[in-house]
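It is worth pausing here to work through a concrete case rather than discussing structure prediction in the abstract. The textbook approach is simple: state the sequence, then state the predicted structure, then interpret. We follow exactly that order.
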Amino acid sequence: MPLLLYICSKIESMLSIQLFRQEKELVLAGLQKKNFSNTALVDSIIEVDELRRTAQQENDALAAIVNAASKEIGALMGKGEKEAAEALKQQVAQHKDQAKALQTKLSELDARLQELLISLPNLPHQSVPTGKTPEENEIVKQAGVIPDLSAQKAPHWELTEKYKLIDFELGNKITGSGFPVYIDKGGKMPRALNNYFLDYNTSKGYKEYYPPHMVNADSAYATGQLPDKEGQMYHMPEDNFYMIPTAEVPLTNIFRDVILTEQELPIKITGYTPCFRREAGSYGKDVRGLNRLHQFDKVEIVQLVPTAQSYQVLEEMVAHVEGLLQALELPYRILRLCGGDMSFASALTYDFEVYSAAQERWLEVSSVSNFENFQTNRLKARYKDAQGKIQALHSLNGSSLALPRILACLLENKQTPNGIELPSELIPYLGANFKIQ
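Step two, the predicted structure:
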C-alpha cells in the first residue's frame, strides 16, 4: 500500500492522539508532503500526551483508593470503630486534595494538547501531488475555447473605465485600494451573477442560507481559519468578531455541536456573502483591478456527508462547478493542488482557473475541497446511524463561484469592437435590453 494511502486509512479524525502514538512516521511524512516545517510539534504532542496519560492514571488510582476507603469508613462506623473511621477520613481528605491538584494539572495538559493539535494542518489525501509551489500543481483537465481577441484586446480595468462600470479610484477614496465601487450596469452584473449562481445551486438540491458576515472566534477555529489565517482576517477586538473570508465559515458552523440523523444526510447548503481578506503582502500586476480584492462577492456550496461517500461527493461537486463555467462559455482548466499549495484544513483540493485572453494568463475562480474529518472533529458535528450509533462526518466546500475574476474574464473574453457580448444564460438575470456598448 502506498505510504500516503496508508496514512489516510489510519486517520479517523483531526489527527487523533492514537495516530501520533502508533504511526508517528506516517504523520511526519504527511506533514512533509503538506510542506509543514514545524514537525517538532509532533514530539511535543506525544510528550504532553504522555504526561496527560500519566496524570490520568494517577487520578484514576486515587479515585479507586478513595472509593475503597469510603466503603471501609462505612463498615468501621457500622462496627462502632469511630476512631479508626476518623483516621481513615483524614487520609481520604488528603487523597481528595491530591486528586484536586491532579485534576487541575489534567485540565492544563488538555488545554496545552488542544493548543498544539490545532496548530497542525490536515494531512493530504494519497492522490495529492508532491510539490511546494503553484507551478507544481497537476492539470487534470482543460476545456473551452480561448478567444482570439487580436490586437484590439483590453484588460478589464480598461474596459470598466471605458464603459463606466467600476470606479477603482472612488473606492480608494472611500475606503482604500481593493474596495472598488460598481456603478450602474457594473452594479447590476454582480447582482445578476450571484442570483444566477444561487439559482443554479438550489436547482441541484442545495438549500439556500443567508448567514452573518461576521463570526466569533469559536466559528473561525472550527473551520480552521484560526490559528492559521489570523493575520489575514479583519478582526474587531472589542467584540472579538472576525469578518468572514468566505461563506464556508458561517455555513459550516451551522452544524457545530449538532448530531444529525442519518435521514438528514447529505447536508447540501449554499449561500451568498461578501468576503473580506486583508491579503497582506499582495502587490504588483497580478493584483491589478479585480484580480485581488479586500472585499468581494462569492457564492459557496457546502456538504456534510458520511465518511465513505466524501470522495464521490467531491467529484460531484467538481462536476457541479464545471457545469457553471461551461454555461458561462468560459475557457477553464482544473488543477489538483500539490501538498505545498493546499490550504491548512484541506485533504484534497481542486482549483478551477479561467483563461483571460486579454491578460494572457489563468486566473483562479474556484476551489473545491474535501476536509475529511478535520473540520467536523473541531465542529463536533456527527450523525446517528440507523442503529443509533454516533458516526463521523466529512465536510466539503467549493466556490460556486467567486465573482470578481469571473466578471473580469467575462468582460475580457467577451469583448468585441461593438461592446461586450455576454452569454445567453445571463439574459434572464440582466434583462433582454441589457447591453454594454
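Step three, interpretation. The two ends are 60 Å apart (CA to CA). The longest helix spans residues 40-78.
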